[in-house]
Design a protein that fits this description.
This protein is of the alpha/beta class. It has nine helices and nine strands. The structure holds phosphoric acid mono(formamide)ester (CP). Phosphoric acid mono(formamide)ester (CP) binds next to α2.
């Protein structure tokens, strides 16, 4: 992992995932350490973010490093027409690591190819969100005590949701059974289903939400990604497809936990928040420890 960019979750192996999880456990026990003194991490966000950007920044601050960057490309020289390559080549002069979110799929890979410092993909369009995936793995391991042989429901926008694409690819290593719950328009793309088939992983597709909840260990809910639709009418057709309500959780397994990368719009009713099975806010906190693990691994400090 040292000095390597993290662009897709497939850039890391099962052993790498376990190493990050172990290190995140260490940071959860001791989140404040002065081990990034003198290091500068740049966060370049060409798309909005709350959790990813702020948890990266919190992770660096707690470890004694410094953060530079922008939260809106309109406040950078991109607004004057500067290319992504020139932006990356410039920011790399000022930083040891670049964390970038960009709406264009493949932009993070391109940035890593031109950058002299490692690049971490904080989400590229509907493609990948590998650091979210690692914090999801951490959250699953923490709540279930294991990653192997779990029954996982992925709910919502499985077409455009980059977090479910990364999670599916990582979980291939742990023999899960998947239930995909989505409207027809937003089904899991074929390339990911083919990857499951090639690895002998079972998956089932449903349009109805409650059918598979009772056997689930993890219910991973996603927002319908309005910003990725080219036809606004298509969004209108599916925007309220699923709303998970507290009463739907009756009879579910005691170990079951509800995850959501957030932000939520209306796909999980607020009455679920008080249920002990709701885990999405602790999941967001796990992002700090996991990102501490990612940064220190890439910088060769841990
Ligand atoms: N989970 C996630 O990527 O959230 P943000 O868009 O707020 O960063």
């Amino acid at each position: 992992m040292k000095n390597k960019s993290l662009i897709s979750i497939s850039d890391y192996s099962r052993d790498d995932y376990m190493q990050i999880i172990e290190l995140a456990e260490h940071f959860e026990k001791k989140p404040v350490q002065n081990i990034l003194e003198g290091k500068v991490v740049a966060t370049l966000f060409f798309e909005p973010s709350t959790r990813t950007r702020l948890s990266f920044e919190s992770a660096v601050n707690k470890l004694g490093g410094r953060i530079i960057g922008f939260t809106d490309a309109a406040s950078s020289s991109v607004k004057k027409g500067e290319s992504l390559k020139d932006t990356i080549l410039t920011v790399a002069q000022y930083s040891d690591l670049i964390v970038m979110r960009h709406p264009v799929e493949g932009s993070a890979r391109y940035a890593s190819e031109v950058s002299p410092v490692p690049v971490v993909n904080a989400g590229d369009g509907a493609n990948q969100h590998p650091t979210q995936c690692l914090l999801d793995l951490y959250s699953i391991k923490k709540t279930q005590g294991k990653l192997d042989n779990l029954n996982i429901c992925l709910v919502g926008d499985l077409k455009y949701g980059r977090t479910v694409h990364s999670l599916l690819q990582a979980m291939v290593n742990f023999k899960p059974t998947f239930h995909f719950i989505s409207p027809k328009l937003l089904q899991m793309p074929n390339e990911y289903k083919m990857e499951l088939e090639a690895n002998g992983i079972k998956y089932y597709e449903h349009e109805e939400l409650t059918a598979s909840l009772k056997e689930a260990d993890i219910v991973y809910v996603t927002r319908i990604q309005k910003e990725r639709f080219s036809e606004p009418m298509d969004y209108e057709k599916v925007k309220n497809s699923y709303i998970l309500k507290n009463k739907m959780l009756e009879g579910t397994k005691s170990n079951m936990r509800i995850l959501h990368p957030l932000p939520r719009v209306n796909e999980i009713n607020v009455d679920v928040d008080e249920n002990e099975k709701a885990y999405y806010f602790p999941q967001a906190l796990n992002g700090v420890y996991t990102r501490q693990a990612i940064i220190t691994s890439i910088l060769g400090i841990k």
